[in-house]
Amino acid sequence: MDNLTQYAQEGFECDLRGKPAIALCPLHTSSPAGMAWIVGAWLKEQGFVTPNGVRMSRGYTMRANGMLLDVKNCRSIIRTDLASKN
């Protein structure tokens, strides 16, 4: 599964109502699709635009909207492309 944008879009469109995304994700959160769904919800929560170009990278990292995200812990997504530029 190369393009996970569809799943991220579903997470982006979900109304979390103050609940953690991991609690509302309809997919297995350890699957690429589930991680993409949670990334979509995170993007919305952080004020980013609609997800695009969402795909798995190496290990537990994903690319979304031109960013590299560490999704090892779905409760705490970390943007790693900023850390690597220092």
Structural class of the helices, strands and pairings?
A: alpha+beta
Q: Roughly what fraction of the amino acids lie in strands?
A: 5-15%
Low-confidence stretches: none
Order of helix and strand elements from N to C terminus: HHHEEEE
Count of discrete alpha- or pi-helical segments spanning 4 or more residues: 3
Quickly count the domains. Answer: 1
Total number of β-strand segments? 4
How would you describe the shape?
Answer: globular
Span between termini: 32 Å
As a whole number of angstroms, the C-alpha radius of gyration is 12 Å
Strand order across the largest sheet: 1-2-3-4
For the sheet with most strands, the description reads:
4 strands, antiparallel
Helix content: 25-40%
Average pLDDT reading:
91
Essential attributes:
alpha+beta; 86 residues; 3 helices; 4-stranded antiparallel β-sheet
Give a description of the structure.
This protein is an alpha+beta fold. Strands 1-2-3-4 form a 4-stranded antiparallel β-sheet, covered by helices on one side. Helix 1 crosses helix 3. The longest helix has 14 residues.
What does the secondary structure layout of this molecule look like, with pairings?
Elements: H1 5-13, H2 21-24, H3 32-45, E1 55-56, E2 61-64, E3 67-70, E4 78-79
Antiparallel strand pairs: 1-2, 2-3, 3-4
Helix pairs in contact: 1-3
